């Protein structure tokens, strides 16, 4: 008979509180057979923990709440986009994303021939609104620059599609 200690609510129970019995069988290649009282094997450590809520004062060193993680997202993103190479990469992705959206809108409304005038009016209004929003700000932030890059890609995609249709 072997004895093992268990952790329950961060307190270790005495080793003789739980007992395991294991018998080895030569017919099973030396594997251990555990009886009902002998599971799990003594090499395993069974840990039972209680779940405690994080206090509002932040004194608990445990896991964070979802609200705390959401509040950290702006700071993490600012630190992530400090690198000029990351800014250029996401600027290019935004430009190509605008191009892709323009091609998709042009293809879907142009192929159907339904509401294509209304789609063109909505595209022009959105483009003009983004332009007005971008140039009315005293300081250009990175998300605003991404929005302007998206608008430029969108406009470029519509021009390219117009040249394709004209040829």
What would you note in describing this structure?
The chain has 167 residues and is mainly alpha-helical. It folds into two domains: 2-48, no CATH class; 84-166. The chain has four helices and seven strands; from the N terminus they run βββββββαααα. It has helices at 66-80, 84-112, 116-135, 142-166; strands at 2-3, 7-8, 11-12, 19-20, 22-24, 32-34, 47-48. Strands 3-2-7 form a three-stranded mixed beta sheet, with no helix packed on it. The longest helix has 29 residues, at 84-112. Mean pLDDT is 76; it is low at 1-22.
What is the overall pLDDT average? Answer: 76
Global morphology: elongated
Largest sheet: 3 strands, mixed
Number of helices in the DSSP assignment: 4
Transmembrane segments: 88-111, 117-135
Family: Belongs to the ycf20 family.
Keywords: Membrane, Transmembrane, Transmembrane helix
Pfam families: DUF565 (PF04483)
Main features:
167 residues; mainly alpha; 2 domains; three-stranded mixed beta sheet; two-stranded antiparallel ribbon; 4 helices; 10% strand; elongated; disordered N terminus; transmembrane helix; Uncharacterised_Ycf20
SSE blueprint:
Elements: E1 2-3, E2 7-8, E3 11-12, E4 19-20, E5 22-24, E6 32-34, E7 47-48, H1 66-80, H2 84-112, H3 116-135, H4 142-166
Parallel strand pairs: 2-7
Antiparallel strand pairs: 1-4, 2-3, 5-6
